[in-house]
Automatic annotation (TrEMBL):
<feature type="transmembrane region" description="Helical">
    <location>
        <begin position="39"/>
        <end position="60"/>
    </location>
</feature>
<feature type="transmembrane region" description="Helical">
    <location>
        <begin position="7"/>
        <end position="27"/>
    </location>
</feature>
<dbReference type="InterPro" id="IPR052155">
    <property type="entry name" value="Biofilm_reg_signaling"/>
</dbReference>
<protein>
    <submittedName>
        <fullName>EAL domain-containing protein</fullName>
    </submittedName>
</protein>
<dbReference type="Pfam" id="PF00563">
    <property type="entry name" value="EAL"/>
</dbReference>
<dbReference type="GO" id="GO:0003824">
    <property type="term" value="F:catalytic activity"/>
</dbReference>
<keyword id="KW-1133">Transmembrane helix</keyword>
<dbReference type="Pfam" id="PF13426">
    <property type="entry name" value="PAS_9"/>
</dbReference>
<dbReference type="InterPro" id="IPR035965">
    <property type="entry name" value="PAS-like_dom_sf"/>
</dbReference>
<feature type="domain" description="EAL">
    <location>
        <begin position="475"/>
        <end position="729"/>
    </location>
</feature>
<dbReference type="InterPro" id="IPR000014">
    <property type="entry name" value="PAS"/>
</dbReference>
<dbReference type="Pfam" id="PF00990">
    <property type="entry name" value="GGDEF"/>
</dbReference>
<dbReference type="InterPro" id="IPR035919">
    <property type="entry name" value="EAL_sf"/>
</dbReference>
<feature type="transmembrane region" description="Helical">
    <location>
        <begin position="146"/>
        <end position="168"/>
    </location>
</feature>
<feature type="domain" description="PAS">
    <location>
        <begin position="172"/>
        <end position="209"/>
    </location>
</feature>
<feature type="transmembrane region" description="Helical">
    <location>
        <begin position="67"/>
        <end position="85"/>
    </location>
</feature>
<feature type="domain" description="GGDEF">
    <location>
        <begin position="330"/>
        <end position="466"/>
    </location>
</feature>
Amino acid sequence: MQRKERHALYWAMGQLSIMAAFALWFSGVAALEPLRRPLGALLITGGAAGYWAGTQFFLGGLRRGEGAWPLLGFLLLAGALQLWWAANPAVVFPSGGLLLCLVMVWTGVRLGRGRHLHRYRLLGITMAVRGMFNLAGSIEMTPHTYLYWFAASSVLKSLSMLGLIYAVQHEIKQRYASTIDSLSNGFLIRDKRGYVHVANERCASLLGYGSAADLIGRNVTDLLPGLTRQMADDYFAAFEAAGTRYPLTQEAELTLHSGAKLPVEMMASPYIERGRLYCLVQLLDISERKKKDTLLYQAARVDPVTGLGNRYALAERLRADLAQAHAGARACALLFIDLDKFKRINDSFGHGAGDELLRKVAQRLQALLGPRDMLARFGGDEFIAALPDLAPADCEARARACAQAILAAMVPAFDVSHHTVAVTASIGLACYPRHGSDGETLLRHADIAMYEAKKAGRGELRFFSDAMNAAARDALVIDGALRHAIAANEFRLDYQVIAEAGSGRVGKVEALLRWRSATLGTVAPDRFIPVAEDSGLIVELGSWVLAEACRQAALWRGGPLDGVRISINVSAWQLADPGFVPLVEATLARHGLPGALLELELTERVLIDDGPNVRSVLERLRALGVSVSLDDFGTGYSSLSYLTQFQLNTLKIDRAFVMDIEHSARSNSLVHAIIAMGHSLGLQLVAEGVETDGQARILARMGCHYLQGFHIARPAAPEQLLLFAASRSDAASGAPV
């Protein structure tokens, strides 16, 4: 039993003790005569002790475990009364009445004087009056007077007992009310019909009312305008359903009488009173949680740099758009947009400038799309534009028009961090349902098409085709096999002679990479080189080629190929690698070769993509004595500025011009102009694809320095090349080969 319930027990014991004392005195039983005085003294003292202890407990002045000394005192008092009464029987009633009078008056005064006990003042007065009546009852009365005294005393006794019961109940109620009012959550108890029996102040505040009293006795449907009787009944039915696990927790959005919306979490538990089931409901205001959930939702689906949806938001939108398109027999288009050479912006100006560029690109792209279209940042420098609800017959035309508008919008340069930056984009396109029946497939196919656009020269657009898918699968297989090919010693180098046009002697050799895979067989360079570049494996592969070519040049020393320069192809990935120049220097030193025996072949695309970095790398290579050759000249941009900016050593004329030199005056004139320009710039000229004696003679007359092609020699293993070089060095001929 808790401390604050103990007062009720002591008050009851005190009243019962007093009633037993009066019963003992007026019983008239002869057998009880010897016990009347000692037992009466004990009962009267026990009654006084019960009221004293009950009042002390009620007021908090006596705690559990502190009753030993008061109990001893009352026992001594009982003994003293018994001795007094035995010596003076006439004082039994006056002294007993006086003791009860003093205790009850003291109880009344204590109950009425407390600072927080003013609500018990009437009870205190009643107890004091009752004590005076007990004193009056000990005086001799006439039977008629005693009848009035007994009636009035009974009324006072009843009132005092009811008051004491009220005090106990009131304290329990106050404790209960204080407990529920101290809750940080709203709390109410409703019955099956929906009427509120109990509510706390927090609940009233949440529901927009002034106090809990405004809720009690009213139906929940009257308190919440958006709540219907059926909804209230359904909630209680779910609450009392068999197998329900408590607390029953639900989230809801309540409409308040002010019209405001309140998101809450309701936790309901059962409560049974007098056989009737009630529902105890806690209301938790989850407005802040909802705001945080919204922020988390946005953080998970919104790109922080551009403010566009990210790939998760895109996936959700695609599912909805494709489901709608499927239901309505409509089409959707997907544009996979990748910024070309975006990494160069980050490397040159920092990631802050890169983020600024992404935001400005996003603004331009968004301006081109309709209100129903979606633009998302897929990651890095990749954007996705989704065009929903298109007519199947118009899907490709609409997608193409949008892609062309995007390419045109990228032409004007961007002002980024006080720098003017030109950026192009490559776009892959896929349409639903032609190119895929789900979002993941469409994205993958548009991605494949985008890479095809990059291979076409960047700044291009391509629609997905099944052939691209086959090529992508082939690239995946090749990529897997490439990763183990070097360790498995599956590569080799063949060498093709580059002969002097006048003497036919071997002037240079070009190292050509060959791959015979254990799983794929012989794989042509045009199949595996692009895959190696896309995956970044070209750096490791290029390092192997450099090391193997230098090793072979060292082996040729002292023979027919001693002093012959070896030319190797270098990719943009290798030039962008900070360790490339130190690698070249270390490789030459390891094999004891001078830099003059090594020539690096670049394409125009390498010079265009990363001009400033390439220029710096080439300057460092030239300091090592390494020569630089521009491969396939005439097929790309053929900008004359490259020839002066990069201080090249050699131009290689593409085979596309050489093959028609005998029969096309236009090709003949173009090759002649290239050779003349090369002479004026002090460059060496190499003609590729020389297949006939006529081509060789014409090129020699034009002043071309070197010839390369099947007419001169086919690519061969190092041993065969030695035999060829020996035969050419023995031949003394001034005629072109």
